[in-house]
Design goal:
- It is a single chain.
- By secondary structure, the protein is of the alpha+beta class.
- The protein is built from five helices and six strands.
- The strands form two sheets. The chain has a four-stranded antiparallel β-sheet, covered by helices on one side. A two-stranded antiparallel ribbon has the order 4-5.
- The chain is elongated, with a radius of gyration of 18 Å.
């Protein structure tokens, strides 16, 4: 029952950052008091100004941190929005989660707080892990997933060099 209530409670995110140092109670306390939001499922082409325009409707923003591919230093589909007030962050979660931005339904969750280093993608190729293994073509997130794109590149190279088996 407690797990079901946590999923129904917007203050408690289902996602838990493995880098968070502390126990479950510390995690929940951080989520209940933080003014930081995690914004997911962004297009790689969404700009900071667009995020500001949408999220400032819920309150005064202290800072926006774009998630970046750690290899290419380009946006990789997530951001952190930090408000001055907790009530503004709560309003953003309540009203903006599921909002369509750049033709994508975005995810807005409470976050335990931004610390330097969290802006980088954690995938092997530098972006988000979820984009490593995506099988579908998603133009808003750079095309195919990294694993599929690598297979396509290898196949195209074999075709170009005539090294395909008969």
């Amino acid at each position: 029952m407690a797990k079901l209530l946590k999923r129904l409670n917007p203050e408690i995110s289902v996602y838990k950052d493995r880098r968070f140092e502390g126990d479950e109670a510390d995690w929940e306390r951080a989520l209940r008091t933080s003014t930081t939001l995690y914004i997911g499922n962004l297009s790689f082409y969404t700009r900071e100004e667009q995020i500001y325009e949408v999220f400032s409707k819920c309150g005064h923003i202290d800072r926006i941190i774009m998630g970046l591919d750690k290899m290419n230093k380009t946006p990789c589909g997530f951001a952190f929005v930090i408000y001055y007030a907790r009530a503004d962050a709560e309003a953003a979660v309540r009203y903006l989660s599921g909002t369509v931005l750049d033709d994508r339904a975005i995810r807005v969750d409470h976050d335990w707080g931004f610390v330097e280093g969290r802006q980088w993608g954690r995938g092997r190729s530098g972006g988000q892990v979820r984009d490593e293994f995506r099988l579908d073509y998603d133009p808003g997130r750079g095309g195919y997933g990294k694993v599929v794109q690598k297979e396509i590149d290898v196949m195209q190279q074999k075709i170009a060099t005539g090294s395909l088996p008969n």
